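In this section we walk through a basic example: taking a raw amino acid sequence and producing a predicted 3D structure, encoded as discrete structure tokens. The instruction is simple. Fold the sequence below.
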Amino acid sequence: MMILVNGGSSSGKSAFAESLILEQDKRERAEENKTCPSWYLATMIAWDEECRERIRKHRNMRAEKNFRTIECPVDLETAEIPAGSRCLLECVSNLAANEMYRGDMKNPEEHAKERILAGIEKVRRKSGFFVIVTNDVSGDQGAYSEETEEYRNLLGEINIALAGEADEVYEVLCGIPVKIKTAEKNTAQREDKEKMEHMTDGITLITGGAHQGKAEFAMKRAVENREDRFICAADGEKTRFADAFNAEVILNLHIYIRRMIKDPDESGLRTEYPAGNEENCGDRAEACMYRFLDEILEKNPAAVITCDEIGCGIVPVDADDRLWREMTGDACQYLAARAGTVFRVVCGIPVLLKGGEQ
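The resulting token sequence is shown next.
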């Protein structure tokens, strides 16, 4: 059994993951009379006092709970655990950073994903009950450096791969675990898939954090509704606004919105606000956005649209960034209210929010 536990910082994911191990320990004691310890695979490096304090906090949480700790900030495959044991790996985000920036290897980032997944697979094969904690760093709009974005992409790809292999996946929100993948014969997934196959009325809105697998799901969803399997995609990163009016898939709606804020005239959409007037640039951008959304709904009523969640995190200092966050949230609400189906993708798993038989 492998379980993936995903969540933001201080969401309660560590305590929940630990509770899964303790419950399994109790079951084994009752059913098999086992008294062997659980194994905690620790990935954090004590760089400074803040890290040391976090490590102390987690050790205190595990005190007197029959855990033994193995320090494995890199090279997880070298961890020696007894066959059939209970293991808690915490957490993948630290492991990814450590492997990506390790100093004992040339270009360590090139095969970091493969090393991490190979190490996790080795632990999985040897353990009997394996819980993995990972971190969600996808839900804000931060203007990150290229290096940081590479790390976010790496972690996203690893999380998607792990969720695909896991028997169960949980997202922990405010200390509340929400099961988004179940081991019970995958009944829920099959039922959701059947619902998805019959959802064709209206647009499909797909949201979620960065690097969660939204684009892949959007393309798959669009193909399911066509016989020729040829899909035309518009992308806010690189295509014209007009392309969104006839493409089966519209990727990165939030980037289209960002482009409107930077230059409302680029959209080519007419509004009541005159072009070239800097004083009402924000109003013109907002008017352009709603005109853009309305034309998509009118001209492309079966479109599959992806948009990043960028509303989490600290309110930006920059006025344009604040406007971008607000307009993107407004756009998602506007489309969701008019959509036939709405999904949120977490670790590559589509969670149905609207549509079908709720």
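Looking at the output, two observations stand out. The chain has two domains: 2-181, 191-354. The two ends are 29 Å apart (CA to CA). In the next section we compare this with other chains.
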